[in-house]
């Protein structure tokens, strides 16, 4: 149990949640993950972590009643994404690592990244009616 003022290392909670999901025999709901982690974390904290991991492409989810059940992605692309996130979470100077990586891309890969970022921005832009 952590004391007041104690902070987890960056990525520690995500790693713990991923380990919990990997050790499960089936997809788990946020409440089940919360209970397996000892119940010390707020439900909203667990849900936020699961949502972030899903958004990063590290988890699959399926509807179970009113909630979702989450499981680790097992395809090769998903595993590569997971490893990249681990490296970034553990690296001092995240921005430096990202800048050097982007600077090392071929012209073709750089163009592909730019196109993907434009598409992502377009999907995340608020509707004009909002």
UniProtKB/TrEMBL annotation:
Record keyword Transcription regulation present: yes
Entry keywords, A to Z: DNA-binding, Transcription, Transcription regulation
Listed GO MF terms: DNA binding
InterPro entries found in the cross-reference section: BlaI_family, WH-like_DNA-bd_sf, WH_DNA-bd_sf
Gene3D superfamilies: Winged helix-like DNA-binding domain superfamily/Winged helix DNA-binding domain
Pfam family, one: Penicillinase_R
Keyword match DNA damage: no
GO biological process, one term: negative regulation of DNA-templated transcription
Family: Belongs to the BlaI transcriptional regulatory family.
Protein name (record): Predicted transcriptional regulator
Organism expressing this protein natively: Parafrankia irregularis
């Amino acid at each position: 149990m952590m004391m007041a003022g104690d902070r987890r290392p960056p990525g520690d909670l995500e790693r713990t949640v991923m380990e919990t999901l990997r050790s499960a025999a089936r997809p788990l709901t946020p409440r089940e993950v919360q209970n397996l982690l000892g119940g010390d974390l707020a439900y909203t904290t667990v849900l936020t972590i699961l949502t972030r991991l899903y958004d990063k492409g590290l988890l699959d989810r399926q509807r179970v009643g009113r909630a979702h059940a989450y499981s680790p992605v097992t395809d090769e692309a998903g595993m590569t994404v997971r490893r990249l996130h681990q490296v970034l979470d553990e690296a001092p100077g995240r921005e430096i690592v990202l800048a050097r990586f982007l600077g090392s891309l071929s012209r073709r890969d750089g163009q592909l990244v730019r196109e993907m970022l434009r598409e992502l921005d377009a999907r995340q832009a608020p509707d004009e009616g909002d």
